[in-house]
Amino acid sequence: MSTKREISIWFFIGISLVVNGALVLGAGIYEYFNPPANPVVLFRLHAGIWWGAILFIIGLIYTVKFAPGGGASSAHKDAADEREVYAK
Amino acid sequence: MSFAVLAFDSSRLVHLSIVDMVVIVFYFLLVLAIGAYLKNRANTSEDFFLAGREMTAWIAGLAFLSANLGSLELMGWAGAAYQYGILATHWYWIGAIPAMLFLGLVMMPFYYISKTHSVPGYLKLRFGESSRALSSVSFAFMTVLMSGINMYSMALVMKVVLGWNIHTSIWLSSVTVAVYVALGGLRSAIFNEVLQFILIWAGALLIPVLGLIEAGGWSNLQVQIAHNASVEYTHLWSTLGSFNSNPMGIHWTGIVIGLACIISFGYWTTDFLVVQRVLAAKDLRSAQLAPIIGSAFKMFVPFIVILPGLLGLAVLPMKLVPENVAVATGGHSYNEVLPLMLARYCGPGLLGLGITALIAGFMSGMAGNVTAFSTVWTYDIYAALIHKKATDQQKVTMGRWCTILGVLISIGTAYLVMRFGSIMDYVQALFSFFIAPLLGTVLLGMLWKRTTSAGGFWGLLAGTLSSVGMWAWVKIDPRALSYVALSRNAKDMAENMYRALWSWLVCVIVTVIISYLTKPKPESELVGLVYGYTDIPSEGAVPLYQRPVFWAVVVSAVFLALNIYFW
Predict the structure, then answer these.
(1) Which of B173, B512, B543, B561 is most buried (most C-beta within 10 Å)?
(2) What domain range is A59 assigned to?
(3) What's CA B54's distance to the chain center, in Å?
(4) What is the separation of C-alpha B29 from the centre of its chain, rounded to a whole number of angstroms?
(5) Do B19 and A20 count as a contact with CB atoms less than 8 A apart?
(6) The complex's ipTM?
(7) Contacts of A49 in chain B (CB under 8 A)
(8) How does pLDDT run across B100-150, given as a tens digit for each residue?
(9) Domain B18-421, CATH class in plain words
(10) Global pTM?
(11) B302-316 pLDDT, tens per residue?
């Protein structure tokens, strides 16, 4: 069994949400100022802007919280640190 | 850069912008990066095949669910909701939740305490080598064949939806899966499955939200569906009194007994594709909590799968048709409802995220198949039958090669299906033959100490053969449907439910009879494997909210409330 501490999966998820959120948000802002000729249904709600912002913020929180070397735990650290209260 | 790219034409459903392509490319790079990063953490067989048994309940639980959430699951059931209405939800609620809770509370302790590496491995411990050989060989090959069928179907969808070349779709997605699983083993598959689970929700959640806004809420949606289709499409139970009063042509006994009690329990508690994720949990409490966490999320999957199908009935301007009619007329099939809804509401970026969700679904399902195949092959076929003295390192090497081999067999199957389409029906039927009898064998093995090795083996074989026999009987003589499914009006799904029920009964009856005729195992050999001879470790002084049974009760309460609300 490996013993080296690993980067948390939640960090990778945070990165993914930050990048995707930024791309969706950016595209949404662009479309806000340059409306397309054939807009999608409910274009007036500008879903790309608020959904992209939500993904970006959640992603940022996870990226910072689970950054390598940060305080939060990884799956492996959880397993190593939490001594089994419930014996195998 | 132009974002005015969302349009329909006759050859494809949607057009992707540069932003959409960047989202998709980034996804592929990230999953490969995770695989490369985890390469050095898969050096022992325990690491490679069981992720070191270090996963927390949350990670194991989300991977457990994600491995089941293939793209065909997403698109197929959205299409089924368009075709059959809210009845499709039964496959997510009563057809999943009770079985997942049962796995967590009742069966997981036996799987976990026995330290088995696989479900066939448990059969070896309980019934001996013959039962393991039967189940492992059938499971291993059916798994990769199913994976190939899913791969072909996914590539076909990508061709229809995006206009992508079918060969590019097959090779790009499957080679990516092969690389990250071969590098990091189950740990890499699980990490990526959790990522894929989040992306599926991030990409698909907007459809029901915006759809409900457009439809004017659930009440208005019901009115529109009643106008466009029928009022029966929005009732979960009240139309199941007879075969003719609902769009699926099924009776409530088929749903409750066939689906909920047999097929669902068979799949969620014995299919190693999903059980493997839970075996990777770091301790027994996490292993018990993982399926319960999975069940809580499973309960809300209809929001992103079934609801878009129902919304399609209400808001789409065109009428969707069966696949064969769509091919003949150039129309849109039921299975295209999810991409159609995606294209309806999602602009640049969001569309890429939605397509990424579909690709992620496919890859998580395929990784599930491939990891389960390589584990069962390595432990239950290679190390058990071919090279009994295999070292730990040889098992890891075999696991890596099996991953690549599994993907290649899947690709071969995909091309075979491309050439001979009818193979798909046969392989899907073949896979279903094993699930129900296996449930009977595992349940009796865990809960009835009198079950003998001979009883377990012959029961499993008889149940499987009876299932094959009933399927062939209906194929040869369609009138047999009125005996197998109790009605000539029964549709394919109803036939599957009843065939599962009868084959399970045959398995149980044969197992019981032969067990009474043969000599039982000594009690000392049943320790850790059978109820009554297994000491379940005490949970100790953990707070109520950390106990699996507490969360199982919470999930059950929500499950009941949802069924009553949508009755």
Answers:
(1) B173
(2) 18-68
(3) 23
(4) 26
(5) no
(6) 0.84
(7) none
(8) 999 999 988 888 888 888 888 899 999 999 999 988 988 887 888 888 887
(9) mainly alpha
(10) 0.86
(11) 999 999 999 999 999
